[in-house]
Amino acid sequence: MTNWLRRHDLNLANGAVLLFLWLFFIVFMLYPLGYVFSNAFFTEDGFSLVFMKLMFSSPNNTIILANSVNLGLAVTLFTTVLSLPLALLLVRYNFPGKGLLNGLILIPMVLPPFVGAIGMRQLLARFGSVNLLLLEMGVIDQPIDWLGGGSFWGVVILESLHLYPIMYLNLAAALANVDPSLEEAAKNMGANSFKLFTTVTFPLMLPGYFAGAIIVFIWAFTDLGTPLVFEYREVIAVQIFNMVTDLHQNPMGYAFVVAVIVLTLFFFYLSKRVLGGGRYEMLGRGHVASAARPASATMTVVAYTVVLGISALALIPHLGVLLTSLTHRWFLSVLPSEYTVKFYQDVFSHNLALLSIKNSLLLSSLSTIIDIVLGVTIAYLLARKRVPGRGVLDALAMLPLALPGLVLAFGYVAAFSATPLDPRINPVPLLVIAYAVRRLPYMVRAAYAGFQQTSVALEEASINLGASPMKAFLQITMPLIFANLIAGAVLSFSFAMLEVSDSLILASKEQHYPITKAIYALLGRIADGPYIASAMGILGLLLLAGSLFIAGRFFGRRMGELFRA
Amino acid sequence: MMVSVKFDSVTKILGQSRAVDNLTLDIGAGELFFLLGPSGCGKTTALRTVAGFYTPDDGRILFNGQDQSRVPPHKRNTGMVFQNYALWPHMDVQSNVAYGLKMRRVSEAEKKQRVRHALEIVHMEAYAERMPNQLSGGQQQRVALARALVIEPDVVLLDEPLSNLDAKLRVEMRTQIKDIHLKIGRTMIYVTHDQAEALSMADRIAVMRRGRVVQAGTPHELYTRPESAFVAEFIGGTNLLRGTLEEVDDLLTVKTQAGIVHAKNGVKGIQRGDPVFCSVRPESLRLKPAGESRGKVPSTATNELIGEVLSMMYLGDNEQYSLRLADSALVRAVEYNPPTNKTKIGDRLALEFDAQAVVVLPQEELGD
To answer: Out of 2.30.130.10, 3.90.1150.10, 1.10.3720.10, 3.40.50.720, which CATH number does the structure's domain A341-565 have?
Structure first.
């Protein structure tokens, strides 16, 4: 016992903080998940696999499961194909304007894909701009059903165009982490460029690649907004969303959520242990010279063509949304026939739109404050103290990366019904907590990186000269990690503003709608609904773009480290 | 104020190992005291318990007889110089130095004057407005020193302060720190693994190994009268000839496989029949052509062994030899002001050394 105490920094203050953190995670993460599990496996007669059997025996359900997995895999594959050349070009070559292109690649992140879906629908519909343009030009004489096949490919394309920047950030970081001397050694042994890449570079990149791939996979696998807008209902996320309303009558919802959790954990495990292998990047990095070399003129042209080409493709949905937001008549013409800024004014006069903006600002501010407090505390304990259960604390703080918002929100509705926190009465507390939990990993990582870069000796020197530990922390460490905290907070805030699945599930009354749910609700209204929704989408886009720009300014090149598992 | 520091049976456990193991040491007020030892011997841990960053798991730290073990580090009034300097990158030089005074609520005017004075002591007054990253390693080192001194600490703690400097600067800084110690007369505890640094600067040295002090004393005592093979080897380097103690008389007689060795000095408590080392410093060996002394009866006050030259290294003011004795043990010898030499590799030479220069030590395993 004394030995155990000796090995840890445990005093009253640390103990109280730890206890509080444990309670938080237990109440708002483990308990809802446990509740879902127990309802999926326990009936009034005790343990039972009846719901599981039901789910897998119905061919309908297995198709739905397969659709979701396929969606995740297809998006992962597409994003990889899109971002690998980008990473190779931008990490390995130096050319004028590289910084600008680097920024351009990140732009698609700034629009929730379900908003992009509005624009996409406008462009690719049966009588949308693309078909009309092709008809006019005489290329086709029958409109093509672009979004056909149950819209599966529409969802894949839209999500891929939204998520490839995350894949790119991870691939670029993984590539930059490969020790150039390892590649030089391979060249020295006679490997040509192709062999070099397949036998040394790519294997070394794998752990970093899978860390990003799993995030992309889980995102696509559980995305709710995009399939909803494309009316692609045969996926697990939409099914669960529909079951939330009658979850007390129909326990199949629990079974579906359990299936999502199990599959998510399975793929997470696969990516970490089996595919990701060891973390080679940690080994033997004496000196890492920059592996970038000046690009030849041809290479520069190639780089610009590839980056601009992919970016143009990725910006099509944005363009569609922008055009939709600027018109009130866009039928049967390639481009809108009239333009107006009326709908931007409407956003600020329309009751629902304005209210939802206010709601979102409040909810996101509160959740960001929680994230800062929890994130800095957890990062501090992990980086600076030897507390008991350190590994578990780390795992709990990172778990939300693998925990879809859909699952969390479903768990909250299920577990907290008929309690003081019942989201159907007042969803505000749980919305705030859901946002906070979902973005906590970003904050912990940002703060942890700050603590890691700031030597403990700096704090000790201050204590040695007479500052109390608290003073030393506030005067020395805080200013030095401030940039990290800003970056983490900005990201937490802006992603909370555009959080889709938990907003759609938890907010049930108009007075509590956050922006995303308001956009979704407006889309369903005929008349001017979609136009106001588009205008709100564009405003959200500008907000997220500004935030990412600020975060990038503070966090610099290490942005990629935030978006990985 | 001059403060004496006492380690009273201090034990500190880090992870699974006893980083400091029942350490007892008395450091006099105003002394420049060195903790010397190989890496991992616990010297830095010992220093950090004085600063209060570690609380002893057992035992006490006393300043002037007063128990400090439960006093938090920011209330101890020690001034520490960190190995990597730990200058705060977001403050300029004078803010770094003024920090401790600010914590002590020293008036603005006095603060200014004391910061200036501290920077003068370390010859950095011209750099008051620079940021730490605009300074060279040696300059950062001196700012760190000024920051520790300006608060007029009871004890100055230096954790390998010179280890990040290049060789030339290191030697210069030795003199400077010693001068500063003379000038301010405060108790200083200095941790290093560099025995030359310790020998050239210390009032007293404690040699540490595996969390314990193996020997403490003045540099001269440690060098001339080591009490263990570890100390003899670690301080200055030595030759250890393996043998058995045959006779204990006015002189000690040791039988080695290379021949009989007489010694004037021995560690207390060794007895006839014990396996021992004879420690002979390389510079105590005199090299002569092997033939010259043949036939002469070696006096008991002088020893002579025969060795074969394996290699020679000419270093200007001295020449270092590596020789193999009859029992194939290797021996190092140093000749100062080496004559224009005609010795060749493979030559057989006589190694002559006085019984006075030999210390007989109990055998032990070496290494950390």
So the answer is: 1.10.3720.10
